[in-house]
Write a structure and sequence with these properties.
single chain; 260 residues; alpha+beta; 9 strands; elongated
């Protein structure tokens, strides 16, 4: 058990020390000219890394890659919020308006199977004063998640829904129909980047890369979702203007090599 724990700890420590060494290598040229202490610290770090890699016989590296792609599909979150003194009247108004929205979107060619109720809520509303709390009525919310396969229809979906009575447009999430294919390409690039990094680090420590012991996938990332919030939704002559920007499909891998 102690040997296993020691090996795990050794791997983690080697990875941390190698990362530190790489950082110092980048910083040292500009700093060593003003302070020889940086050069000495770098020498000590490299020496320590060499000793640790010799003991464990392993090198752990992380590789990352991302691919920028234009989105070709989107999900629009929109719906209706109504407040009334009667919960039954509020629900009736919401249901009527939502049906008008669904009809308008179907007229655009959006299949009803691509319209999903994402939230339906009913809660009381109150008036607060210093001395009392009075029930004002009830608020009913019905939110619809609309999957739009034709990118050019996004602005029309918003415009038609608003004209049909939608008073909530909560956001647009962009995606690509080729996400899996693009991710596979990013994954290959991440592995290549990790191998290149490992070769550089092994050479810097006076070693050679041996067999690849393990490959761990870090998971798929869609960093472009935050880019989607850069979308501009401006009312120009009654029409909504949508700019989707780019999506970043990213991949990360961890490789463990033998060192010789």
């Amino acid at each position: 058990m102690k040997k296993v724990l020691g090996k795990v700890f050794g791997r983690a420590l080697v990875a941390a020390m190698l990362a530190t060494a790489m950082l110092l290598c980048a910083m040292a040229p500009g700093l060593a000219s003003n302070n020889d202490a940086w050069a000495a610290l770098l020498d000590r770090t490299v020496t320590a890394v060499t000793q640790m890699t010799t003991q464990t016989g392993e090198l752990t590296v992380i590789g990352t890659a991302s691919v920028a792609v234009q989105p070709d599909m989107a999900t629009v979150m929109l719906g209706v919020s109504v407040e009334d003194v009667s919960v039954a009247f509020a629900q009736a108004r919401v249901n009527q308006t939502m049906q008008s929205i669904v009809d308008a979107l179907q007229a655009l060619g959006i299949d009803q199977n691509r319209m999903i109720t994402s939230n339906y809520s009913v809660f009381p509303t109150y008036d607060f004063s210093q001395d009392s709390v009075t029930l004002r009525g009830y608020q009913v919310n019905n939110m619809l998640s609309v999957q739009v396969q034709e990118f050019a229809l996004i602005s029309q979906v918003i415009d038609r829904a608003v004209l049909a009575g939608a008073n909530q447009v909560q956001g647009i999430t962009f995606d690509t129909s080729k996400r899996n294919e693009i991710y596979r390409g990013a994954l290959q690039s991440a592995i290549a980047a990790a191998r290149e990094k490992a070769a550089i680090m092994a050479f810097a420590s006076g070693k050679q890369l041996g067999n690849l012991r393990s490959v761990t996938e870090g998971g798929q990332g869609m960093g472009g979702f935050h880019n989607a919030w850069d979308v501009r939704a401006d009312s120009v002559a009654g029409q909504t203007s949508i700019l989707g920007g780019e999506l970043d499909v990213s991949a990360q891998v961890t490789l463990v090599f033998e060192l010789k």
